[in-house]
Protein 1
Amino acid sequence: MMRFGRILAAASVAFSFAVAPAMAQEKPSNAGEIELAQASKRRPAIRNTGTHVYLLRGFMDIFSTGMDDLNTKLNRAGIHASVHNHSEYGALAEQIGDRHRRGIRENVVIVGHSLGANDAFSMAARLDDFGIRVPLIITFDPTSPMSVGRNVSRVVNFYSSTNGWGTSIGRGPGFRGSLSNVDLSRRGEIGHTDIDKSPALHSQSIGYIRSIGGGRSSSTAQSPKQESKDKESGTAAGEKAAEAKEPAKETAKETAKESGKDAASPAAASTPAKPAETARAKPPVKDMAPQTTASAPVKPAASTETAASKSN
């Protein structure tokens, strides 16, 4: 019995020595898998929501109603846009930064007028703290000589150097992008409260936004009902256009038939007879030739008579 106990104890010791290394190797792999799982939970999935245009009004939202008009035009064009007071730039930057941390990315475009133009650069500087780049800033008559930060790719500044308010924009430290200061005073006087309402500048701004990929996104996509209405209206318009084309086709066919009848009519057939008349008119010309040749021999007869008289 004691022998059996010793054998059992020896077997258990041997088993422990054989299994221990394998368990030691499994622990690191399990720990690695746990670490990877935790890391995947900490890193959210990246999702790009497209372009978002933030429009900043000026003082007390009184003189910057052009930003509201531009906001409407952008959304109608399928470009996601929202309009705010210039004093909200800090809160907007915080919201964008919070979404960025959660993996929600967007192409931030900032447009501002007057004080809103000044704070467009302040908002971009705040976004730089979150490591967020700003592909485009468009400003209308900024009132302070602001400078562009390193995280901005392009700036277009519409201003007037003669209206007493507008000013140009400078390059800040680390800025390597494109800067365009467009002085509109060369095109004629434009007021500080009118510059943001210019339809021409609105069209140019929309073009600049489209150049960086701004366009219709899922957030501005039409509902199925609206799409069906648009298709029906498009179909109706196409049917009307087709109906309008039918009378023109019938008229063209009738014209072609009439021209065919004219070609087959006796009047048309008599038209080529003119060359025959011309050919008939030629023989009299030939008949006149003998008359001319017949009168030629008369001269020698006269000369013969003269010679005979001389001989006599």
Protein 2
Amino acid sequence: MKKSLGQNFLGDTNILRKIIDIAPKDLPVLEIGTGSGILTKGLAEAMTLPIISYEIDRSTFEEAANHLALFNHVQIIHADFLGVDIPFLEPFVVIANIPYYITSPIVEKCLANPWVRGIYIMVQKEIAYRMAAKLGEKDYSSFSVFCQTRAVVQKCFPVSRHCFFPPPRVDSTFVKLIPTTLWTNQIHDIEIYDKIVHSAFWGKRKTISSCLSRSPYLALGSVKAKAILDASGINSQLRGEKLSVQDYLNIANTLVEFNVP
């Protein structure tokens, strides 16, 4: 275990049982963060389909690999998950108890994979609220829009900091994301869409018109920004946190139709 990697191992058997119970048993599992291997072992005992688990720390990997060697359907890989290609070319689910500082890139990478059927992940409580926040709630953010554009997000249960060793400084929440194409199938250009969302939340207390005009993600200039918003039926004086996924979809598709780079 290395403090520099932000590792906090889950040790509470009741929480482990909840995770194992909620995880699907009819699809292969990609686990991110093997840790001590206690969750991996529980999953291996509950299912017979393949489990591939990534662990970045060498000493932790070696201990877990030895501990789980008797399970033929379990493969422990010493690697940084963010730096490798996902091995499955069939439907699978992701289960993760990861350092909080890399939550966003891991969620983004998993949601970008077309074979992912579910992401079951332990995150910092505040991040869970951001992921699941609805329009009008104080935690609604660009990450809320990103996640909810691509998945149905559900906060499953809270997890106290005292369930880990060593205890982190914050409490956690276990979250389930089920990918959906409801919105993405309607978006003409997902890269443009994401730039618009990032732009909208780029400047606190700034209007959507100002953000689209000046943000480093998509600097349209004031004239183009107003034209796009007017054509989208969006009030240019609203702020990013007042716009829904549907609103962002309308802006993005209008921008593509206007053929504005």
